[in-house]
Each structure stands twice: as structure tokens, then as C-alpha cells.
Amino acid sequence: YFTPLEQVIQEFRHKYPNDSELINELYKDQIEIDKCKSNSVVISSFFVIMQKV
Q: Which residues contact 9 (CB under 8 A, 6 or more apart)?
């Protein structure tokens, strides 16, 4: 899930380097991805709970 999203983020950064709003949003998205990756146990546990309900 994260790999394709990170690829799109990188692509947009290179394609629109002068769009400060977009760059800012992409930065926020990357932070969220990094948080999810660093807390993968918490995220995966939440996902399992959601599936069982």
C-alpha cells in the first residue's frame, strides 16, 4: 500500500517542484506514511480488530 503511494509522492515532487501548496501537502502525507510504518504493530492490530467486527 505505501510503496505505490510513496512513488506518486516522489513523482509529484519532481513534476511540480514550484507548487508550494502541493509540496506542503505531500510532505504531510509522507509524515503520515512514516508514522504508520514506525507504528506498524499498532496499525496492524487496529486493522485486525476492524476486520473481525
A: 26, 29, 30, 33
pLDDT band at 9 (very low <50, low <70, confident <90, very high): very high
How far is 51 from 9, CA to CA, in rounded Å?
Answer: 28
**Count of structural domains within the chain:** 1
Q: How many CB atoms lie within 10 A of CB 22?
A: 14
Contacts of 17 (CB under 8 A, 6+ apart): 23
What pLDDT, on a 0 to 100 scale, did the predictor assign at position 1?
72
In this prediction the pTM is 0.65
The helix/strand/coil state of 1 is coil
Question: Which residues span the domain enclosing 23?
Answer: 2-52
